[in-house]
């Protein structure tokens, strides 16, 4: 875990490794509890039925962003100590497309496939097999892919610098974007599930009369 936590707290290497394992276990547990160990839940976002992926990940992004902003502002964790990958627009666009396509077809991303495998999901194990094959193909063909991978490098690019705005303004704007996205996907979910529900039943398969009575109950 090469990051500001180990630097600020001055972890020894063994403690750093133990902390990495504990953080990884906690992250995996959180993903499983959120339902990310099941491909059906993950793929549902592409059909408009269940946006838990967007909600959980957007919440995590905003939480981390706000935390990093205030830690940088207060001084304990300067933004300059964070390891941020260089920006390669072409390679990252192609990589994002391939990851998204794999997500749609396989129902997992690399991290959630590990959660699914630990939960005993056979499809997750098959997905990991495909992931390893893809990694091997890229490794063996690294020289062939190098022109794309190295094209248009822009170094370390931060959103607020790219937009030429104060970082606090961007943090606030992204938080507002998250709130708006949560509201919008909630409406999409209700509309899609209402259309998919059999006649006479509510969005979750509950008889419409029972659902209406439950809503009227004090």
Question: What features would you describe in this structure?
Answer:
The protein has 218 residues and is mostly helical. The chain folds into 3 domains: 1-34; 37-81 and 168-195; 85-157, no CATH class. Helix content is 70%, strand content 0%. The protein contains 11 helices and no strands. It is globular. The model is unreliable at 206-215 (pLDDT under 50).
Shape, principal axes of CA atoms: globular
Number of domains: 3
Strand content: under 5%
Radius of gyration: 21 Å
Overall average residue pLDDT? 84
Main beta sheet strand tally, sense and closure: none
- Characterize the quaternary organization of these chains: single chain
Helix and strand composition category: mainly alpha
Compute the separation of the termini in Å. 51 Å
- How many strands? 0
Following the backbone from N to C, one meets helices and strands in this order, namely HHHHHHHHHHH
Low-confidence stretches: 206-215
Amount of helix: over 70%
SS element count, helices? 11
Topology, element by element:
Blueprint lengths: L3 H6 L3 H21 L5 H5 L8 H23 L14 H18 L3 H9 L3 H19 L1 H8 L9 H5 L3 H30 L11 H9 L2
Helix pairs in contact: 2-6, 4-10, 6-7
């Amino acid at each position: 875990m090469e990051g500001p936590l180990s630097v600020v707290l001055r972890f020894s290497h063994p403690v750093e490794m133990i902390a990495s394992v504990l953080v990884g276990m906690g992250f995996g547990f959180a993903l499983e509890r959120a339902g990310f160990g099941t491909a059906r839940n993950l793929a549902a976002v592409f059909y408009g039925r269940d946006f838990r992926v967007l909600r959980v990940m957007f919440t995590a992004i905003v939480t981390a962003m706000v935390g990093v902003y205030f830690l940088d502002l207060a001084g304990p964790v300067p933004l300059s100590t964070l390891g941020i990958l260089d920006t390669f627009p072409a390679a990252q666009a192609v990589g994002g497309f391939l990851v998204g396509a794999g997500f749609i077809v396989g129902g997992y991303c690399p991290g959630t496939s590990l959660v699914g495998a630990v939960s005993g999901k056979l499809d997750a194990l098959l997905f990991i097999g495909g992931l390893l094959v893809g990694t091997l193909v890229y490794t063996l063909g690294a020289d062939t892919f190098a022109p794309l991978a190295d094209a248009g490098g822009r170094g370390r690019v931060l959103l607020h610098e790219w937009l030429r705005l104060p970082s606090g303004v961007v943090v606030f704007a992204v938080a507002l974007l998250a709130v708006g996205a949560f509201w919008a996907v909630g409406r999409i979910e209700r509309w899609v599930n209402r259309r998919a529900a059999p006649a006479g039943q509510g969005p979750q398969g509950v008889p419409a009369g029972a659902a209406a009575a439950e809503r009227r109950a004090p």
